[in-house]
Amino acid sequence: QSVLTQPPSASGSPGQRVTISCSGSSSNIGTNTVNWYQQLPGTAPKLLIYTNNQRPAGVPDRFSGSKSGTSASLAISGLQSEDEADYFCAVWGDSLNAVVFGGGTKLTVL
Amino acid sequence: QLQLQESGPGLVKPSETLSLTCTVSGGSISSSNYYWGWIRQPPGKGLEWIGSINYRGTTYYNPSLKSRLTISVDTSKNRFYLKLNSVTAADTAVYYCARIDVTVVPSTMFDYWGQGTLVAVPS
C-alpha cells in the first residue's frame, strides 16, 4: 500500500484527453516536487514529467503535469495507441525520508 | 549518450546475498550533479526505491530495507553496486539502476535507467 494513491486503471479512446491523479499528503506532495514515469510493456520506466510540470526533451507536449496542494495530476491529450502503458508518480517523502512511488495506473487506449 | 547496464546472478537462494553491479557508460559517475540509484519492481507490481548513492559514497536507503542493504560505488570503474542480505522470495523482482538528477533536492528525478535485470529467489 503506497503512501501515494493512484487509480489502478484509466482508459480513453484515441484523440481523447485523460487525466491520472496522484494523491499524497503534506509531508510528500505538499512539500516536494512530483515526477511522472511512463512504463511501456516490457521496458524500463521513462521520465515523462519532472518538477511537477516540466517535460524532458523529446516528450510530446500532449503530456502535461500539474500539482495543487497535496495532489498531482498527469494529463494526456490527443490520446494515441502508443500511450498505452503504466504511469507512476514519484515524490520524496519527508516523514519516511525516502523516495515514494505511487502504485501505478494502467492506461488502456480503447 | 549515457547508458546504464545491470549485471549479476539471475537466481539467488533464500537467505543468501543478492549482488548486482550497475556499469555506467557514456558519462562519468563522478559528478556532483547526480546521484545513482537502485529501484526494483516485483513481477506485475509497482516500483520500489531501494536506495541511492553519490560518487563520494554518500548513501540514502529505503528504511524498510536498510538493515539488509549496502550500496557502494567505484569511481575508477564507473560502477556502483547493490548488496541485499538474507533474501527471501519477497525480494524477487526486476532490479533497475538509474541516474538521479539532483538539481532540485530532494530529488526523485530518475532521468536515465538501465534495462533491468530479473532476480529470482525461490520459495
Structure, explained:
The complex is a heterodimer of chains A (110) and B (123). Chain A has strands at 9-12, 18-23, 35-39, 46-49, 63-68, 71-76, 85-93, 98-101, 105-109. Chain A has 110 residues and is mainly beta. In chain A, the strands form two sheets. In chain A, strands 1, 3, 4, 7, 8 and 9 form a six-stranded mixed sheet that branches. In chain A, strands 2-6-5 form a three-stranded antiparallel sheet, with no helix packed on it. In chain A, a hairpin with a 6-residue loop joins β3 and β4. The termini of chain A are far apart. Classes of the chains: A mainly beta (110), B mainly beta (123).
How are the SSEs ordered, and which strands pair?
The complex is a heterodimer of chains A (110) and B (123).
Chain A: E1 9-12, E2 18-23, E3 35-39, E4 46-49, E5 63-68, E6 71-76, E7 85-93, E8 98-101, E9 105-109
Parallel strand pairs in A: 1-9
Antiparallel strand pairs in A: 2-6, 3-4, 3-7, 5-6, 7-8, 7-9
Chain B: E1 3-7, E2 18-25, E3 34-41, E4 48-53, E5 59-61, E6 69-74, E7 79-84, E8 93-101, E9 110-113, E10 117-119
Antiparallel strand pairs in B: 1-2, 2-7, 3-4, 3-8, 4-5, 6-7, 8-9, 8-10
Please give a handful of descriptors for the protein shown.
heterodimer; A: 110 residues; mainly beta; six-stranded mixed β-sheet; three-stranded antiparallel β-sheet; B: 123 residues; six-stranded antiparallel β-sheet; four-stranded antiparallel β-sheet
